[in-house]
Amino acid sequence: MPRHNDCRLLSFDDLRSRLDRDPLPEKDSRTGSAVALAVGAGAVAYLAWMALRTPARPAAVQPVGNFDISRYMGRWYEVARIDQRFEKGLVRTRAEYTLAPNGSVQVVNRGFDPRRNRWDEARGKAQVVGSSNEAALKVSFFGPFYAGYNVVALDEHYRWAMVVGSSLDYFWILSRTPVLPSGVRQHLLAQAQQIGINLDRITWVMQDGANPTGG
C-alpha cells in the first residue's frame, strides 16, 4: 500500500531547514516569479477594466435626457424600493449627493435600523456614463466595482425621480420631501410596470411623519 502523506504541521524553522536542505531549482524559482508577476499584472488590468466599464442596462430602460446633474444634487428621500440585502428592514432612508470639483459625485446613503436601534451609513461615489446630458450614471460603494444608476423618470423641477439599476431587481422612487406630491405615485407605478418592474416587490418606506404609500 502507498504511504499516507505526512500531514503534520511544520514550524517556520522546519520549513526553513527543508528549504536550506532542498532548495528550489533556479529555473523553478524564476518561473514562480514570472507567474507571480503575470498574475499581479492581470489583477491590476482586471481592476482597471472594472473601473472603466459601463454597467449593464436592462433593455427596456431608457434614462431621461436634458439631464442637469447639478440640479440633481442634494438630499433625496427614498419613498419606495425593491428590497436588497444592504437595505432590508431600514426605514427613514435618504441619500445625499454632492458634486465634486472633478465632476464626480460623492454619495452618502443613510437609513435607520429599528431592530438594532441605530443609523446605518454607506459612502460611495458616482459618475456619469456616456452623454453628459443623459441621466445614466454608475455608482460604487466598494473599490472599482460599479453598478448602474439610471434615472428613468424625473420631475421637471427635480422634485421626484425614479431610478432603475443594472437589472430590474434594483428600483427606487425618490422625492425631495418625505412624501410624493399627489398623483405622482400612480403615474410612476404605471411607468415602472411598462418597463417590467414587478410591482408586488415594491416596498414603501416609512419616513418621519409621512404616509409610506406616498398617497
From TrEMBL:
Transmembrane segments: none
Name under which the protein is recorded: Outer membrane lipoprotein Blc
Pfam entry (one): Lipocalin_2
Quaternary structure annotation from Swiss-Prot or TrEMBL: Homodimer.
SUPFAM superfamilies hit by this protein: Lipocalins (SSF50814)
Compartments it resides in: Cell outer membrane
Span of domain Lipocalin/cytosolic fatty-acid binding: 67-207
UniProt record similarity statement: Belongs to the calycin superfamily. Lipocalin family.
Protein's job: Involved in the storage or transport of lipids necessary for membrane maintenance under stressful conditions. Displays a binding preference for lysophospholipids.
PANTHER family: APOLIPOPROTEIN D
Superkingdom in the source lineage: Bacteria
Sorted UniProt keywords: Cell outer membrane, Lipid-binding, Lipoprotein, Membrane
Keyword Acetylation: no
